[in-house]
Design goal:
This protein has 123 residues and is α/β, with parallel strands linked by helices. The chain has a single domain (8-118), classed as 2,3-Dihydroxybiphenyl 1,2-Dioxygenase, domain 1 (Roll), CATH 3.10.180. Helices cover 17% and strands 32% of the residues. It has 2 helices and 7 strands; from the N terminus they run E-H-E-E-E-H-E-E-E. Strands 4-7-6-5 form a 4-stranded mixed β-sheet, covered by helices on one side. Strands 1-3-2 form a 3-stranded mixed β-sheet, covered by helices on one side. It is globular and about 45 Å long.
């Protein structure tokens, strides 16, 4: 029986560049880091774990194939302004769904990253 999603992992080509992207631009805080710095985990404050790695031999970053990660954010507009000011590639600018607003950006390695903010609940 499956119990939960243990983590979401992205392959990266340059772990230092990827860490700078996720830690400096998306403000993730690293948790577990392998001795060789080939695997870095980020535990999120409200649950879930995101990992980046250079250990996935034969797997390459992609913005158009495979899965993607969606990060819940506090203020999508503010984050997008900051990312655009840092010339981060935007795959899909902010759009509205019935339950949220989201944008899709491209990380430093070429992976698509969804940024997601729930709509305010009506009173």
């Amino acid at each position: 029986m499956l119990k939960k999603i243990a983590f979401t992992m992205y392959p990266v080509s340059d772990i230092k560049r990827a860490r700078a992207f996720y830690e400096n631009l998306l403000h993730l805080v690293p948790g577990k880091i392998s001795a060789e710095e080939k695997w870095v985990e980020y535990d999120l404050p409200q649950g879930g774990c995101f990992a980046i790695t250079t250990m996935a031999t034969g797997v390459i970053p992609s913005a158009t194939a495979g899965g993607s990660v969606a990060f819940e954010v506090d203020n999508l507009d503010e984050l997008m302004i900051s990312l655009k000011a840092n010339n981060i590639a935007i795959k899909l600018d902010t759009f509205i769904s019935p339950v949220c607003r989201m944008s899709v950006i491209i990380d430093s390695e070429g992976n698509a990253v969804i940024l997601h903010q729930l709509n305010a609940k009506p009173c």
